[in-house]
Task: inverse folding
């Protein structure tokens, strides 16, 4: 049980680290490229960060999982989808201003990129 909590916390930490990195990268990009930076670039930065957060969060959590534990994969996927939905609905609505749509893009891409691993879970279950 302690190992499962540890891997879930590692995945959550990776997701938030990538979210913070995307925020910092967005600020730097807006300062450096002030004439070429647009709202579309703003949304794309957070969308791509959501994809990387889903992939890296899953991979970092699966490093600690024993090979015989097939249920851990689905637990990580569900946890990442829930976090993605929290970003999409709750956190985006709390912010509500300029960052509302980029936060939604981050949450949506985090959830969708996590669903990619469902095929890997089905293969492991056979």
Result:
């Amino acid at each position: 049980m302690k190992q499962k909590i540890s891997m879930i916390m590692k995945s959550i930490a990776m997701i938030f680290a990538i979210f913070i990195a995307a925020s910092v990268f967005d600020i730097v990009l807006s300062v450096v490229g002030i004439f070429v930076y647009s709202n579309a670039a703003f949304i794309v930065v957070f969308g791509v960060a959501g994809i990387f957060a889903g992939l890296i969060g899953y991979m970092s959590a699966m490093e600690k999982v024993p090979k015989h534990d097939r249920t851990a994969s689905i637990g990580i996927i569900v946890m990442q989808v829930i976090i993605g939905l929290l970003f999409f609905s709750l956190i985006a609505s709390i912010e509500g201003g300029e960052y509302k749509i980029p936060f939604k893009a981050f949450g949506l891409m985090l959830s969708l990129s996590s669903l990619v691993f469902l095929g890997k879970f089905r293969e492991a279950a056979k």
Summary: The chain has a mean pLDDT of 83. The chain is about 85% helix and 0% strand. The two ends are 24 Å apart (CA to CA). The helical segments are 2-32, 39-62, 71-95, 100-115, 118-125.
